[in-house]
Amino acid sequence: MRIAHVLRRISFDDWGGTEQVVWNIAKAQKAAGHAVRIFATTALWKGLDDDRRDGRDRRDGSLEVVDGIEIVRFKPIYPWWPMPKRLVAELDRKGGNPFVPGLGKAIRDWKPDVIHCHAMARIAELCLRTAQKLTTSNSQLSTKTVVSLHGGGANVPGEEAKSLKAPTRGRLPWGKMVDYAMGWTRRVPEDFGGIVCVGEDEYEKYKARHQHVLYLPNGVDCRLFEGMSRESREARGTRGPGLAPLETLAPLMPKTSLSLLCVARIDRQKNQMMLVEWLGRHPDGTVRLVGPVTQPDYRAELEARAAELGVADRLSFAGALKPASRELLDEFAKADVFVLPSRHEPFGIVVLEAWASGLPVAASDIGGLGKLCAAHPEAAVTFPPGDASGLDRALAELERRIWSGESGKMAESARFAALKYDWHALSAALVDFYSAI
């Protein structure tokens, strides 16, 4: 089967949840013997390897092969005026709804059996039009179309949805005139042959509206965390050669402050402000934020609030780290608890990574994220989204478990929970879904 995955951006220097899902699915599908190609824009792409980087790297149709997966990128055009470079950079990171000239033709030339779209709006419309051109009365192809809903659209708060449009407010939306001239009026996602939902809320929303809807949670490759998990357990669980484990000494030792880790883009949706406020209430705790900055003004707000509370020395930013990199694994190894305080979240793939590393999790009880954690109470506790007292109670409960000698049990439970979301099994289910459409 020839499978084209189409998404807005994929950059190994600036990683996000959607990219991680697409990349792992693509690798698993290729390992199963399918022909796979990824089509995307050049947003946030820095070019090929340093020894191959030149002026040609960014031309439309640039082909890059990573781990045997072919990636083709095209320059996005954001349809607003004026469009300064600063705004282009901001829309590259989040949103933008671009036109992507050349993308449709490149997909048609490759002649896939399945076009799997991982974006909405104009890119989704382009995928539908491309499949229509491939599937004609004179063609022997019958290209199927599938769209994945990654963003939790079923439960995005109104304020959050409004903030996504803020960068282009007050600018001339000339793209709407082009949409009208081209007759781009299809319904997305309903006009796709199949809909894949990362979150259960969206699955419930669309299963009554469409014949082919699949709930497919995010996954994790636990093998990448095996070595780190052993190192982490040994580092946190023993005092050194010949000395008793810390757990056996817990009743004799005072409580220690927690080291919290949050791996998520710096974005209002992820609500890292809750963790900054937590530092103000817990004078010995630390917070480490890992992830790319998609809203620079929000990072500025976090830093300003930390300075106001006098906790800036206990708040640190690691920036964007490559998935499964040694640097990212080290961040998991150094933390006591993983926290994801999102305002809305269809699933929360980073929770699986935290579990695979043996870390207990505290997370907002919202959408698919809350349901994921509720299914594994031995490895996670939840709190109402935005509830500071609830966050304090959740972390106090995990601290109690750690110092009552349950940290080893929690680590094993966490790793067992992660094993239920293996990428290869999820990919096989997705291919079966393609065949059933």
Outline the fold blueprint.
Layout: E1 2-9, H1 17-31, E2 35-41, E3 62-66, E4 69-74, H2 85-93, H3 103-110, E5 114-117, H4 121-134, E6 144-149, H5 158-164, H6 175-182, E7 194-197, H7 200-206, E8 213-215, H8 226-237, H9 246-249, E9 259-263, H10 273-281, E10 286-290, H11 296-309, E11 315-319, H12 326-334, E12 337-340, H13 349-356, E13 361-364, H14 367-374, E14 380-383, H15 388-419, H16 423-436
Parallel strand pairs: 1-2, 1-5, 2-4, 5-6, 6-7, 7-8, 9-10, 9-12, 10-11, 12-13, 13-14
Antiparallel strand pairs: 3-4
Helix pairs in contact: 1-16, 3-4, 8-12, 10-11, 13-15
> Helix proportion of residues, in percent?
40-55%
CATH architectural designation of the largest domain: 3-Layer(aba) Sandwich
Number of strands: 14
- Structurally, the number of domains stands at 2
Radius of gyration: 23 Å
The residue ranges in which pLDDT falls below 50 over 5 or more consecutive positions are 49-57, 229-234, 236-255
Query: Roughly what is the average pLDDT, rounded to an integer?
Result: 87
Largest sheet: 8 strands, mixed
Percent of sequence in beta strands: 15-25%
Judging from the principal axes of the Cα atoms, what is the shape? Answer: globular
Major sheet: arrangement of strands: 3-4-2-1-5-6-7-8
Order of helices and strands: EHEEEHHEHEHHEHEHHEHEHEHEHEHEHH
Distance between the termini: 14 Å
Q: Quick one: CATH class of the largest domain?
A: Alpha Beta
Sheet/helix structural class: alpha/beta
CATH fold descriptor of the largest domain: Rossmann fold
CATH superfamily of the largest domain: Glycogen Phosphorylase B
The tally of helices reads 16
